[in-house]
Amino acid sequence: MGGLAGAALGDATEDAMTPETRTYVIEHRVDSVTLDNVEVDTVVPETIQLQPIPDTQYQYVYVDDQPVIVEPQTRKIIHIVK
């Protein structure tokens, strides 16, 4: 059973979670995937396609119907959009 827990704090999150980024990922919904025990620093498997966020270095995916921001080089979740 999947689930989301936690939220990121710190510079990376502040850089990734601008109001424009939040608006973009909410307005550009993609098909949701299910992952177990999802929280900040969870690595998103290579089998899951990430979507680019314009004008940022970050990407996103919807997990359990909630957008999460991912650092594409490490594929780690850096923020769960609430």
Automatic annotation (TrEMBL):
InterPro entries tied to this protein: DUF1236 (IPR009642)
Superkingdom classification of source: Bacteria
Protein name per the record: DUF1236 domain-containing protein
Organism whose genome encodes this protein: Paracoccus thiocyanatus
